[in-house]
Amino acid sequence: MGAVDRLNAAQRAAAGLAKADLQKVWRLYSHLPADKLRDTLFTALPALAQKHGDIMSAAAADWYEETLRESTGQSRRALLSGVNLEAVEKAARWAVDDLYHGDPVDTWRKLEKSLLRHVKNAGRNTVRLNAERDGFSYARVPSGKTTCAFCLMMASRGFSYSSRGAAGETASGFGDRFHDDCDCSVVPHYALSRRERAEFDQRVEDMYGMYEAARKEVRADGFDATDRAIAQRIRDMFPGDIKDGAEVPSILRDLDSGWPEGVKPVPGRKWRHILKRHGPGGDAPSLFPDEMTEYEIAKIVRETMQAPDYTAPHPERPGTTLNYFKTIAGQKYVVGTYLDGDGKLTIATSFPVSGNGGIL
C-alpha cells in the first residue's frame, strides 16, 4: 500500500469510528423532546469531534513522521493540529434547527456530515501544519479516479501550496476548505514515489487543462472568472469526468451563466430528448455532428435563444409554437419553443437544419 493510500485508509477509519459513535448517541437520545435533544447534541457533537479528531490527528502525525523518515531520512516530531471546536459548535447550532422547523432526520444527516468533515480536517491540518513548518510544498490529492468540480479546481494547482495563504485562505477562502463528503487528502511532495508522482503530475496536467478550458469559457461569455463560476462551468463541460457533473448545463438554465431572461430553464427531460433524438447517434433525420460535445450543443441552443437571426411560427400551430433560427459557422440551427400552461416560453427541441428541415 502506497503512502497516500495509507493516509486515506486512516482517514476513512477515523471517520467510520466517529460515525458509529454518533449513531449510538442518536439511537439513545433521538426520542427526547426537541429542547432536551438539542442540549444533548450541543454537548455530544463537540465531544465526539474532539475525541475522533484527536485520533485522526495522531494518525496523520504518525503518517507524516513515517513518510518523512522513509523518503528523506529525516526524523522530526510531528505537531498535532486538532479540531476547530468553535466551527463544530456552529455546525451543531445550524443542524438542530431542523428539530423545530423541518425533519429531525435532516438534523442527523447534517450532524453526520459535519462531524466527519471536522474529523478528517484534523488530519489534513496536521499534515499541512507540519509541511509548512518543515518547508515542504503540498498538494490537495483526490481519492479515486474522479472527484468533484471544486476539488478538481483546487487539486489542479498540484504541489504549489506552501502555506494556508497560498492555498487560498486569504484570497477566495476556497483552497483552505474541504466540503462535506470530501475524500481529498493533504499530501507533502516528498510522500509520493517516482511512479506516484509521475501519475499525479499527469493527472494535475489533465485537471488543469479542464480548469483552463472552463475559465476561458466563462471569460468568453463576459463573466468574472470566479472560482464558483469556473467550477460550475467545469460541471457543464465535463459532466462524465467528475462526480458532480451537471445533468443540464447551467448555460441552459441560469441567468448568471447566460441563459436569456424570460425563457424557462431547460428541464432534464427536454435536454435528454435533444441529445437522444438529435445528438450523435440519434434516430432523427437531422443530427448534430459526431464530433460535437454536449456542451457545444448547449452553447448552440443558448446562442440561438440569446440572439436569433429570425423567428418563425410553426405553419400548422401558429400562436403556440415558435421556431428560433440562427446560422453559426455556416450551419443553420433551429430551436423549437412553445408556451407552457403558465404562459412561459419553453424549449421543445433543437437540431441542425438540413434542406427544407426546421419545421417542428
UniProtKB/TrEMBL annotation:
A Pfam family the protein falls into: VG15
Domain of life: Bacteria
Name of protein: Bacterial EndoU nuclease domain-containing protein
Organism from which the protein derives: Leucobacter aridicollis
Lineage: Bacteria, Bacillati, Actinomycetota, Actinomycetes, Micrococcales
